Amino acid sequence: MNPASTQQQQARSYENFVIVIAPLLNSVSGIAIDLYAPSMPSIGREFGVSAIVMQGSISITLIAYALGQLFFGLIADGRGRLPAILPGLALFIAGSLVAMLAGDITQLLIGRAMQGFAIGACQVVARALLVDNIHGERFYVAVVYLSLAWGLGPVLAPFIGGLIEQYAGWRWNFALYAGYSALLLALSFRLQESLAPSRRKTLRQSLGGYVLILGNPRFLSATLALGCSLSVFLIWNIIGPFVIQDRLKQSPSYFGTTALLAGICYLAGTLLNRTLIRTVSGRTLMLAGLAACVLGIFAMLCTPGSLVLPSLLAGVMLTNFGQGLLFSNVVALTMTLYPDRAGATASLLGCGMMICAGASSALVGHLPVGTNLSVSLPFAALLVLQSLGIWGALRSTALRKAVDHECQV
Fold first, then answer.
1. How far is 365 from 358, CA to CA, in rounded Å?
2. Which of 213, 331, 342, 347 lies in disulfide reach of 73, CB 3.0 to 4.6 Å?
3. pLDDT per position as a tens digit, 260-276
4. Collapsing DSSP states into helix, strand and coil, what is residue 352?
5. For residue 342, what pLDDT is reported?
6. Cβ distance 129 to 26 under 8 Å?
């Protein structure tokens, strides 16, 4: 066989491997919260802690996730992709085992923080691998797989986690985390370093890019909008287990089914957006998404003084559908601000989103969930903030150009 042909086949085979492993790495961030969410009430009962403490474990994970993206982003751009992903996956395995074997709530929270910090490596490197190795039309196909892998995590993970909780116990959810990440670590040893020494950035260069991006008001507005979007998507996974299991006395798998329905609505909005974006402007789709969220809040308020699951779940499903319509459009708008600094932009965007989601989840954990009205309040507050963020990101073209010029001088 022709040596050139053999090399082409090997290169093609490696591209196919990257297209498969990058979404798998990205999926870790999609399941990090939702797989164990159905187990929070039983963990709280075993360790004798309140629902507020258990919901706070999500905030700890998200804040650690935000910091991990910044840390591993610097490693991936300064040292290479492999020095970021291999230690990151090893840390995730260690955190999963610490949580699985935890004897008290402190050990569990330490394990969750380790997991959250490690997720940053998975998301940063997953994106970088595609940029480094996949080009042309295949790149856009690969990005679709990357997004779907992340989106399927919150859809399937609560359902799977609910079944594991009901039939095996919460520690087996963390065993699944450890097993899945160990498999990814084994596969990652097949990766080749794709960041050439000439492309590696010094710490000063990376930090300089961060300062430039953070000085752009449009970037900050879009980050607020996306942070609120992630927060809205997480609310039901934070309070839903306690509403379903403690207030309505249903099983963990029952909650998993409601989370599955809510997640399917998010995916439906995302897929509809991809269909319409060729003929409908991103601005229109964002506004339509906000309108769907408003309808969702009104659905919850059909029975404001009591806790009625059908109207509550209908509202959650509508708001998730609306977020699916607008989320990717805001991401696209943000990533076009600095195309020459896409990695730094993505790291800062992810960090900002996780900080917003971590702060909002901590606040949501302190709210009562006795009625549909009380559940609708955090959705309404986040929708107001999100509207302000989208307004800031969609200011007039002339103003946007002026701001970009000021930021780049």
1. 11
2. 347
3. 899 899 888 888 887 88
4. helix
5. 58
6. no
Contact 267, 155 (CB under 8 A): yes
Tens digits of residue pLDDT in 87-128: 999 999 999 999 999 999 999 999 999 999 999 899 888 888
Sign of CA dihedral 61, 63, 65, 67: negative
Torsion of CA 357, 358, 364, 366, to 10 degrees: -170
pLDDT at site 208:
82
Give residue 379's identity as a one-letter amino acid code. Answer: F
How many whole angstroms separate alpha carbon 352 and alpha carbon 368? 27
User: Is 319 within 8 Å of 263 (Cβ atoms)?
Assistant: no
Residue 197: DSSP 8-state: G
Which residue is it, tokens 């699951």? 309
Rounded to 10 degrees, the C-alpha dihedral 60/151/119/176 comes to: 90
pLDDT value for 339: 57
- Among 255, 262, 272, which residue's Cα sits nearest to residue 233? 262
**Residue 230: alpha-carbon gap to chain centroid:** 7
Distance CA 42, CA 39 (A): 6
Percent helix, percent strand, percent coil in the chain, to nearest 5: 85, 0, 15
5 burial level (CB within 10 Å; 0-12, 13-18, 19+): exposed
Q: What are the structure tokens assigned to 68, written together?
A: 């991990």
Question: Model confidence over 145-159: pLDDT tens digits?
Answer: 777 787 778 778 888
Q: With b meaning 16 or more CB within 10 Å and e meaning fewer, what string describes 149-168?
A: bbbbbbbbbbbbbbbbbbee
Q: Are 263 and 317 in contact (CB under 8 A)?
A: no
What does the block give as tokens for 404?
């970009």
The DSSP string of 119-155 is HHHHHHHHHHHHHHH--THHHHHHHHHHHHHHHHHHH
C-alpha–C-alpha distance, residues 130 and 138, integer Å: 10
Q: What was the pLDDT predicted at 2?
A: 64
| CA torsion through residues 376, 378, 381, 387, sign | negative
Residue numbers in the chain where pLDDT is lower than 70? 1-5, 137, 140, 144, 335-336, 339-343, 396-409
Residues 6+ apart with CB under 8 A from 327: 226, 229, 270, 289
Nearest to 172 by CA among 272, 83, 39: 39
